[in-house]
Amino acid sequence: ITLLSYSAVKPPLNVIFEGDSLTSEYYVGQPGPPYGLTNQSYPYFLKQLPFWKYAIKSWTNQAGSGQCMQDVLNRSNQTVMELKSAPYSNVEFLDIGANDYNQWPNNGAGQHTTINSVALWQAAYCAYTSNMMAMGVQIVAFTITARYGQYFDPGQGVLDRDAMNCTIRTNQWKSFLVDLAAAEPDMSPNNSIYTFDGTHPTTNGGAWQARYVDASIRAGDLTSGLNQSILGSQLLSQSVPIGGAGNMSSLTITSTGAAFP
Questions:
Q1: pLDDT digits over 72-85, tens only?
Q2: Which residues lie below 8 Å from residue 72, measured CB to CB, with a gap of 6+?
Q3: Who is most buried in 59, 68, 160, 187, counting CB within 10 A?
Q4: CB atoms within 10 A of CB 153
């Protein structure tokens, strides 16, 4: 890996991770192998990859379990303060919406005020990203992955998520697109390799996501879902460093995909 591979990202970096429990770094999994890490979301693994370990000089993870788009808006002043406090290039990783779609006007737990329609969510998302980029922040935008559980309607929920992901893919206010929805391995509840509940990643799932985020940025803004799917299949054959408190020093996921260079 060379710095030229990341020519669009200029270190040193101040990084903000923003989102919900899919981004938050704290214990959300089941105890014991293969869920043994307390930090199994993608930021934990991304910060261990060679370029990011070197490039990230300061970082904040503002994500929280159950968070929605309205929560991101509510703490936007805090985000601005974080951005202004570090003398580095600013990058925000934004993965938000899994607790919004098909749960209007509030999420299943009723704990957070949400934006009460897809159209209002789309407007808020675009306004937020445009404001951040106007401040010179590079936005790494994630599409919203599938979820399962008692609060999800597989009919209307799919329609909501598709509409929101269309906005994320076509929104001009982004520097990179990480199209997880197009490339993520099967996250159905019975797939314990990548998820323990059909929504939240295991250590394997989190490590795969980090590798995919890294590869997406190296490849540039791949707005084609087809290209993202190809990239995702390639990464399924990679060995991903885990480290930390896990019981494995590396993760190998096998598939028919070709090796990523």
A1: 998 898 888 888 88
A2: 18, 19, 94, 96, 128
A3: 68
A4: 12
User: Residues 202, 28: contact at Cβ < 8 Å?
Assistant: no
Element (DSSP H or E) covering residue 38: none
Please name every residue paired with 61 in a beta bridge, in sequence order, or none if there are none: 17
Supply φ then ψ for residue 166, to 5 degrees.
Answer: -60, -40
Kind and range of the H or E element at 156? helix 156-170
**How long, in residues, is the chain?**
261
Highest mean pLDDT among 71-75, 94-98, 196-200, 241-245: 94-98
Instruction: Enter the tokens of residue 64.
Output: 């929280």
- The pTM (predicted TM-score) of the whole model is 0.79
Tell me which residue of 63, 61, 80, 59 sits closest to 19, measured CA to CA.
63
CB 173 within 8 A of CB 133: yes
Peptide bond into 11 cis (omega under 30): no
Question: How far does Cα 130 stand from its chain's mean position?
Answer: 19
Q: What is the pLDDT of residue 113?
A: 58
pLDDT tens digit sequence for 48-73: 998 999 999 999 999 988 888 988 99
DSSP conformation class of 195: B
Task: Write the DSSP symbol of residue 41.
Answer: S
- C-alpha closest to that of 218 among 2, 6, 1, 3: 6
Token duo for residue 92: 């925000």
- Averaged over 80-107, what is the pLDDT? 82
